[in-house]
């Protein structure tokens, strides 16, 4: 049982790990973090998803006198978390807005009677003075701030209620605090540290490398067909998650998979709560199910044997990509993170940023996030190296990602870039016209289409000057110029316009290096254990 045996010693961390959780040994930094907290120190923990953050506060809460208070934004998961702990004999409860007054009173009584090891608390509850007074009357062993990146206004998951957590230390100066997150660029790390008053705390930064995940980013052609190939060829009968940007494409993709004999369930915020809960429960319980979802799915999902995470649309940031792909392979066995990415993704996301609410600083932030994601897509170096570098960590080429397995070549694309930019320039300046990538490419290829004739584009001097590349290759050029900021899109139809930097290419002051897609995309995961 997790309740106090005797004094210290018999309830040391390792024996709690064995007796309560049934695990052999600590992983990574767990032991050092737990010891530090048990001794009353504050900690800031950066550990990737699946790294084992929960034990870092659950065990100290069991070892120290009093109740450990866990602040978590994942209200929907609290009941599950508490149930799972109770099965292990841990005395756990939660307080959030889903409860009726009677249920809340029961938990409060247990807390005051010293009968709780762990109390999960929604951040908005902690802001209530009544909750603070309740905690004043209880014996608190520690505060754990889960998903601590929610305090970051720079990040993708900001929760205003988290800002108030900076006051924990003022009100309860003797209670140790531990903040935990799996999202950790240097900027987020620094922001968590200042906003939560954790400058004096010990910082534990685990490696973000997930060696058993094979990262692959492929050119999007027929995304659903490509996905089907991946599932049939490499992950038949295995559990996985497919992420799509919109609810409509979630529905369509799930139906497409079902039509093709794959058991797939949709998950998005447009479904009613009961269907969502049922689909999530089936995914956790059954083997070999595929969930097709928007990013609403997965926060806090702990299913160890997710064998693949596929993205049919470009994630908005590297943090998001890392977190979503991180749901694969928590059991340490080989898993695939697969992303199909194309020109349309860039067009669409740039447009979403343009039309997003918020001031220009906010839009700049979104654009910076997108640029980093695009750089990861277009890199010619190891994906893992690039990913780790984004999180401020270094690594060696992994030998297991797509770029390691079939290295893309970079080629001098200066002349094609000049041709393309010059076509856009002529349309803008000679004709006062804006067109999307399709028409511009048709012009370069010298295609005699109806639309070409109608606009007399066959009379432009750039008509037919680009026959050395195929339609697909030109789309790759456009995509990469967009990614490099040498070209931009505008308006509802994704029309192409020039940027300041375009002038440098047109004026021959700048070379353009492009990535050539490998002939045959990398396949078949090599076994890699951690
Ligand atoms: P995180 O919150 O960092 O994503 P969790 O705390 O949910 O990760 O842990 C991920 C999984 O690893 C869980 O199934 C957990 O029980 C397991 N785990 C954590 N620590 C250990 C350990 N020392 N030994 C064995 N399994 C562990
Ligand atoms: Zn690699």
From TrEMBL:
It holds the Pfam family DEAD. Its EC number is 5.6.2.4. One of its GO terms (biological process) is DNA replication. It comes from the Bacteria. The keyword Plastid does not apply. It catalyses: Couples ATP hydrolysis with the unwinding of duplex DNA by translocating in the 3'-5' direction. NCBIfam families: recQ, recQ_fam. This is DNA helicase RecQ. The lineage of its organism: Bacteria, Bacillati, Actinomycetota, Actinomycetes, Pseudonocardiales. The gene is recQ.
